[in-house]
Amino acid sequence: MKKLLLTALLLLPIICYARQSDVYIGLNSKYDPNNLPHIALAKTSYTLDATDEERKNGDLFMEVLRSDLYRSRYFNISDGMAPVNVQSLAIPLQELKDKNIGYLAFSEIYPQEDGTWRIHAYLYDTENKNTLLAKVLKPSNKTIRQSAHMFADLITKLLSGKRGLATTRIA
Fold first, then answer.
1. Quick one: what percent of the chain has pLDDT higher than 90?
2. What is each CA distance from 126 to 39, 72, 121, in whole angstroms?
3. What is the pLDDT of residues 36-51, one digit of tens each?
4. What is the mean pLDDT of the chain?
5. 3-state secondary structure the chain
6. Which burial class, exposed, middle or buried, applies to 48 when counting CB atoms under 10 A from its CB (0-12, 13-18, 19+)?
7. Which of 61, 71, 91, 140 is the least buried, fewest Cβ under 10 Å from its Cβ?
């Protein structure tokens, strides 16, 4: 019996990998998908003359953020929303409130002369119409993912009260 159990435990990761399944370790024991804060993710806002590299890095930042927030299992995520910037924020708010989406995460990316990037990342409360989190991140091409992980952890801590896992080695 012990041999059978040990074999099953050893084969579990292989089976999950073969089926391309996510394995969640009990990080959130009170997980209720119907009672989670709802966050909409907007595509990154660019300048009019944005380069392919600027678009690629902006998309990477938001994709990593989406993945981290989804895997935390603390939030319902809606993504694919059109780009939003601070000046045009009033436009989608009523639409988000009508869909019962409580928060909006979005970013703006700007290239810097030294080859790094300046990313303005925001978390906005659609109900109270105020900015909950605003960070200016200055990553290089190699650290854009780390910046997104850090921002995901800040959102997780702010909205759930729990420490995020995106910047840990287990993530």
1. 33
2. 10, 21, 16
3. 788 888 888 877 788 8
4. 81
5. CHHHHHHHHHHHHHHHHHCCCCCCCCCCCCCCCCCCCEEEEECCECCCCCCHHHHHHHHHHHHHHHHHHHHHCCCEEEEEECCCCHHHCHHHHHHHHHCCCCEEEEEEEEECCCCCEEEEEEEEECCCCEEEEEEEECCCHHHHHHHHHHHHHHHHHHHHCCCCCCCCCCC
6. exposed
7. 91
